[in-house]
Design goal:
Strands 4, 5, 6, 7, 8, 9, 10 and 11 form an eight-stranded mixed β-sheet that branches. The relative contact order is 0.18. With 215 residues, the chain is of the alpha+beta class.
């Protein structure tokens, strides 16, 4: 090895100690061309194989955590809301997702809180949807959504429901609060929580990078 230690063939305890020293001194030099060991006498050692298996398990979450890059705006389908496909704004500055709704009315069913509403989107039908309420949230809003220096309006209470959303070919159940967004350009806002559920990162310079929803 190039670490100042010697390989001791056919002596597993010494081989293990050599391997540990190699990691402590120059861990990256344990491999040659990715996974090939510089010390041939250790490549079939059970200690080496165990460590390599452990490293592969550790590496998997890191690889899985790499986010998918989306644009500032994307098409998202709502399978539980008549399969509606809406233009959504991907907003890392917002916490929760928000869906444009009207005639929002909470009620009690079997001792649980529910909400009924209609979509407040262009061309939406007059159909009434009912969903179980996950919680009630207090939201601080701005008078103009896209202006950082706009006036902050007092917090409002909004019912939050768990809805299935389809982005590209990925479907996730996320928390969505209901409010009338008809004065905004985009009827659906995807906040930081929903972005994490989708494993998404946002490039503000791009738009509609995902395929049309197909979940």
């Amino acid at each position: 090895m190039q670490t100042g230690t010697r390989c001791v063939p056919n002596q597993e305890p010494n081989a293990e100690r050599t391997l540990r020293q190699s990691f402590a001194l120059r861990g990256n030099d344990l491999f040659d061309n990715g996974l090939k060991l510089r010390c041939p006498s250790l490549k079939d050692s059970p200690y080496v194989k165990s460590l390599l298996a452990l490293f592969s398990l550790i590496a998997l979450p890191v690889m899985a955590a790499e986010p998918t890059l989306y644009g500032r705006y994307e098409y998202i389908a709502l399978p539980e809301i008549g399969g509606e496909v809406l233009k959504a704004k991907m907003d890392t500055g917002a916490l929760t997702a928000s869906l444009s709704a009207k005639d929002i009315e909470t009620f009690t069913r079997d001792g649980e809180d529910w909400v009924r509403f209609r979509l407040a989107t262009k061309g939406a039908s007059n159909k009434v949807y009912e969903h179980k309420v996950a919680r009630i949230s207090k939201i601080k809003t701005r008078s103009e959504e896209d202006e950082d220096d706009s006036e902050v309006i007092a917090p409002t209470k909004r019912p939050v429901v768990d809805l299935e959303l389809c982005l590209g070919n990925v479907k996730r159940t996320v928390e969505v609060n209901l409010t009338d967004r008809s004065s905004f350009n985009y009827p659906l806002l995807i906040g930081a929580k929903a972005l994490r559920e989708f494993g998404a990162a946002v490039n503000p310079a791009r738009r509609f990078t995902a395929d049309k929803p197909d979940c």
